[in-house]
Amino acid sequence: MALFNGLPTVGQVSGLQVVQETNAIDAELLAVLTAAGVTPDVGKLNQLAQAIKLLGWGATDRRLATQAEAEAGTDNVYQVTALRVAQAIAKAAPRGAPGSSFHHAGLMPPPGALIEDGSLVSRTSYANLFNAICPVFNCVITSGSKSVTGVPAAVLTALGSGAGIQVEGAGIPAGSTIASIASGVITLSVNAVGAGTIIRICPWGAGDGVTTFKLPEGQGEFKRGAGLGRNVNAGRALGSAEADDFRNHSHIVPGVTGGTGGVYVIGGGSVGSANVETVATGGIETRPRNVAYLPCIWY
User: Fold this and answer.
1) Sheet of 166-168: strands edge to edge?
2) Number of C-beta neighbours around residue 126 at 10 A
3) DSSP characters for 20-47?
4) pTM here?
């Protein structure tokens, strides 16, 4: 077919020039596909976009990573935003196991932690923490009896006296607590209304017994290790609070022996005696030197 030569003087382009320019564009596009390893297919209209993705990103799928994918850190294909990077760093930050209590120097708890303020929180939202501080154990619950047997000895030791600790389980009435622990047996505050094989023990509080549980209260409190049978600070239940106190003691009050008309405190001659009261001194509590930190717990 003859090609029109065109009329340059009136701005007409020759057919040969059009063909040459079209061929040049086709060659450029084919070069892009070839460089990306894409086989040309006249039935596909997205190959150029695919080739650009391959050349620019190295993969056909370069969508944004989800938060879970960014936190997992196992993908080497998807893109991440600055927010996802921050979330991944926060997720990877060192933290303790759920239920681990700690003091924090910041004004707010770090990601993954709550303030130990004795509040009620969701059993669903904080399921790991709930199961950590309100754990379940195999046991034998007998209908019509207050006795619960089969709980591991180490658990009973950690519970101390157990008095007042809330418990849950099949056959255990709502709101039940531990009355006492002795000889490997937990005695409930009320009789079981059915048989069961699982008991959930909540030293810090069971919340509403359905959707919430209670956090430990760490505000303004010193922590003390449980006695665990050492006969030190005995008679305590795990999670129980204790008022301030000091060890019983006595004081020697200087006095005189002999004389008339006075009160005599020390012997050597029995002239007279009376109680002597010292002047009150001190503050509103007994405490050591201390620094205030934010009480937190990992969830």
Assistant:
1) 166-168, 196-202, 136-141, 147-149, 185-188, 178-182
2) 19
3) HHHHHHHHHHHHHHHHHTPPP-TT-S-H
4) 0.66
